[in-house]
Write a structure and sequence with these properties.
Helix content: 25-40%
Structural class: alpha/beta
Largest sheet: 8 strands, mixed
Strand order of the largest sheet: 9-10-11-8-12-15-14-13
CATH superfamily of the largest domain: P-loop containing nucleotide triphosphate hydrolases
Bound molecules: guanosine-5'-triphosphate, magnesium ion
Order of helices and strands: HHEHEHEHEHEHEHEHEHEEEHEHEEE
Number of strands: 15
Number of helices: 12
CATH class of the largest domain: Alpha Beta
Length: about 375
């Protein structure tokens, strides 16, 4: 799917993509990075996070900003009712194409909640949303992991928590960029503010962090929400370095007529050890692996005269056959390469060790047979 169609694509198409990403599909590599701000909202159960998110949506829509919400329910919380409840509470925005809501429970998230919610956030930002809100319940390791994706994280507390503030202190200090004391219509706001200030005065600020502001909000009627939003809009986006696509050389593949004979050089002269001997049926080849620093030599001896390696030996003689690169995301890289006209010799497939691999057509790469590998 093209970047253009996803930016302007239908909510239905976006929903379909989001489901694919939740099930482990990569975010389409063709999607731009986007300029949107990713905001984490976390805090103890019932603090009013969803209500606050609703109030932020109202405020954002008044400013004609598009907003996507990912409501994450990490735990073990048994009912699943909260996620549904969130959906109902936010329902007044349901017909609004500028608002996209996705609820995510642990079930259905493959490869870790944090990873999946991060991928979803990237998807929505790439799809052109100005604001992506990650709402997550609690203040435990799950929430810390989930909000690590966020450019800025709001921790929502309520008056009268007393010892609870102490109890969740450790988690909070790590992630809070902003505090919201919600339910500020209730007694005990000053006390809670003093407790938070007390905690902040004891903690070491994160490097480069400015003072952590404390806002007072009444999410149910919107009091304090425009001020909170102004602050969020002034926050810098995290530096977004593209993740390294190529991690290193995994191995050099050497075509040999006989592994036994070759070892006279590699083992006896160079002192390399063989850690693996196997026959790969699908490639009709005997393989020996010899670790070498961060990489490996892979000796390839034909197991059958019709194998690719046998034909290579016939045509070119023994020698360097291919170079394998370790990559972070084989599927999306293969997509990108194909989209730019580089042919794959086959679709990515699973090797014997459970890794994914694919070969690129040497005619499209300047004569080198490159293999891409992902563990
Ligand atoms: N008095 C008062 N009640 C509020 C305020 N904000 C939210 N509430 C109420 O607090 C209750 C919980 O609100 P939610 O928004 O569901 O809280 P939550 O933090 O999302 O809850 P979970 O997702 O279950 O953790 C609801 O009954 C809200 O109406 C507020 O500012 N003042
Ligand atoms: Mg909620």
């Amino acid at each position: 799917m093209s970047a253009a169609s996803s930016r302007n694509g239908s909510p239905r198409e976006l929903a379909r993509l989001a489901t694919a990403v939740e099930n482990g599909a990569p975010v389409p590599a063709s999607l731009p990075q986007g300029e949107g701000l990713i905001v984490g909202i976390t805090g103890p159960p019932g603090a009013g996070k969803s209500t606050l998110v609703g109030a932020l949506i109202d405020e954002l829509r008044r400013r004609e900003k598009r907003v996507a919400i990912i409501a994450v329910d990490p735990s073990s919380r048994s009912t699943g009712g909260a996620v549904l409840g969130d959906r109902i509470r936010m329902q007044r925005h349901h017909a609004d194409p500028g608002v996209f809501i996705r609820s995510m429970a642990t079930r259905g998230a493959t490869g870790g909640l944090a990873k999946t919610s991060a991928a979803l956030a990237r998807l929505f930002r790439g799809a052109g949303f100005d604001f992506v809100i990650l709402e997550t319940v609690g203040v435990g390791q799950d929430e810390i992991d989930v909000t690590a994706t966020a450019d800025v994280t709001v921790v929502v507390l309520v008056p009268g928590m007393g010892d609870d503030v102490q109890a969740i202190k450790a988690g909070i200090m790590e992630i809070a960029d902003v505090f919201a004391i919600n339910k500020a219509d209730r007694p005990g706001v000053d006390q809670t503010q003093r407790e938070i200030e007390g905690m902040l005065s004891l903690s070491h600020p994160k490097p480069g962090q400015t003072a952590v502001p404390i806002f007072r909000t009444i999410a149910t009627d919107g009091t304090g929400v425009p001020e909170l939003l102004e602050y969020l809009l002034s926050c810098p986006r995290l530096a977004r370095k593209a993740p390294a696509a190529v991690l290193g050389i995994d191995h050099l593949g050497l075509a040999v007529r006989s592994i036994e004979h070759s070892l006279a050089f590699y083992r006896d002269q160079l002192g390399l050890e063989t850690t693996l001997r196997e026959t790969v049926a699908q490639e009709k080849v005997h393989v020996a692996m010899l670790p070498l620093g961060d990489t490996r030599l892979e000796l390839l001896e034909p197991a059958d005269p019709t194998s690719t390696i046998a034909r290579f030996l016939e045509k070119r003689g023994p020698g360097l056959h291919h170079v394998a690169l370790r990559v972070a995301d084989l599927a999306s890289m293969a997509n990108t390469l194909e989209a730019s006209g580089i042919r794959l010799l086959a679709q990515p497939q699973k090797g014997a060790g459970g890794h994914l691999y694919v070969f690129l057509h040497p005619g499209d790469t300047g004569g080198v047979l490159w293999e891409l590998i992902q563990d």
